[in-house]
Every structure is written in structure tokens, then in C-alpha cells.
Amino acid sequence: MNARGALGEYGERLAARLLAEAGMTVLERNWRGGRTGEIDIVARDGDVLVVCEVKTRRAASFEHPMAAVTPAKAERLRGLAERWVQEHGGAPPGGVRLDVVGVLLPERGAPVVEHARGVA
């Protein structure tokens, strides 16, 4: 794994921990929907299925991690969420929500992890 992959994996571990601490159940990580892409984290929040995109950046980078989720990326995530639901028996009673977790790694100190619910 290269440095970028290791950075992303670290951010995803932090995000999964944050979601679990918020009372969610992580169902899957890095689910691949064929050639269309990957869902970083699939979780349950009560009766809602949560499809979560994780973006990790070093503090010196130009843009905030959450700014990396463009409308095109959000649309691709919606398609992946539909595919996941079809392959896993249908949508739960509470429906599907798209969340983003942004992880910012400062040069010193603890990572800053932000969770935005229902962003797309």
C-alpha cells in the first residue's frame, strides 16, 4: 500500500470508530460496487442505512476534506447505495442517508474528525 492508501485507511478507521461511538453499527467497509466505485463505510443508524464517504487530508493540503465530495461524487454514491440496497434485500424502513466524514491530520496533535449527516 502506498502512502496515500495508508492515509485513507487510517482516516477510514478513525471514521468507523467515530460512527460506532455515535451509536451506529458498521456493517461493511470498502464495499466495491463493480467498476462503478466503492463505498467507504456502510452503517446502520437505527432504522436508517448510512452510506458514508470518508475524506482524509493533511492539514497542509489546499482544500478541506469535505469539499472533495463534489455533486458528481455524490451522484455516484447514490448509485452505489442503490446497488448495495438491491444486493442486500432492500431498503430499511428509515431509508438511506448519505453522510461524509472529513478527517484532517494536523502536523502536531490529534486528528480532527467531522461528521456531516445527510449531505447528498
From TrEMBL:
InterPro entries: Restrct_endonuc-II-like, tRNA_endonuc-like_dom_sf, UPF0102_YraN-like
Keywords, sorted A to Z: Endonuclease, Hydrolase, Nuclease
Source domain of life: Bacteria
Gene3D superfamilies: 3.40.1350.10
GO molecular function: endonuclease activity; nucleic acid binding
Family to which this protein belongs: Belongs to the UPF0102 family.
Family matches, as PANTHER family: UPF0102 PROTEIN YRAN
Protein name (Swiss-Prot/TrEMBL): UPF0102 protein CP982_29950
Record organism: Streptomyces spectabilis
